[in-house]
Amino acid sequence: MVNFEEQSAQTLLEHNQITKQQFEEIKDYRALNLFSVHNELKFLLYLSILLFTTGVGILIYQNIDTIGHTVLLGLLLIMTLVCFYFCFKNHEGFKKGEVPFSNPLYDYLVLTAVILSCSFVGYLQFQYEAFGTHYGLATIIPTVISLFCGYYFDNKSVLSIGITGMAAYLGLSVDPKHYFENEMFNNRTLSYIGLAFGLFLLLWSLYSIKINLKKHFNLVYLSFSLHLIGIACIVNLCDDFWFPAGIIMAIAAYYFYNLSFQTKSMSLFIFTVLYGFIGMNIFFVRIIDLIHVEDFLSLFLVLTPFYFIGSILGFIKLIKHFNKKTSNDSL
């Protein structure tokens, strides 16, 4: 890592992007070996929020008979309103561009408020059936709250909760285990819904960029879109209509592959290659099954180990190419 940083500084100097004095100042600064705990503190804050909200749920569960439902709902509502009060009080308000809090701690307070509000609505419906048999309202209301807070307070974590709520309202789950075991393979209609929802998120991301609406949310939408489209296509490759799914997978893989270089997103790149590789292999197997090449089956079995070794080497080469390309672009 140190050699890479030194090489980057040297490259900037050679391209006259920095002066010799600036180059020496960079070397002196790195010689101090300062260590940033920014990411560690953010992780601890996230962990503390998860522990707090989990503790609230456990407290409700263990004392539900002694305290009473009304009291617990009242306390939950008060905590939620207090969190939202301080969030609204210390934020500049909605703007189309990026508007962070003056103190980043309030971002985690927004996250806490949204999680508590989701718990409140869910508890209200579970215990009192406030929405009757319209169970979708218990999902869509927290989703609307999350999406509103995500855009108003410029919070990506809350936005992710909102997108997850939209998927849940449509009957989808963002958990791959549920995708393959409990949902999509047993109900192919959900695979079409997942594909449509993934395309919708992609189109919304492109539209948001066009109108300059929270363009920094782009990667969040693209990540959800990639997973939904990728998994839906893989599921449909195992169905009777596998050929159109293969075409869609190829187009999506090509698009997201190029997009990962534009956004310089390693996660987007890795998952694009992963979904593309899985889809390509399933498509290849379906072609073999279609043309009935049983006579060459023994040859395929012999070549299989070499194929996977070549795939691993190819993946490593792609990673190196991605790092080199994005590093050069950043310079």
Automatic annotation (TrEMBL):
Residues 12-158 form the DUF2157 domain. Keywords: Membrane, Transmembrane, Transmembrane helix. InterPro entries: DUF2157 (IPR018677). The chain crosses the membrane at residues 43-61, 67-88, 108-126, 132-153, 158-174, 189-207, 219-237, 243-261, 268-291, 297-316. It holds the Pfam family DUF2157. This is DUF2157 domain-containing protein. It comes from Flavobacterium pygoscelis.
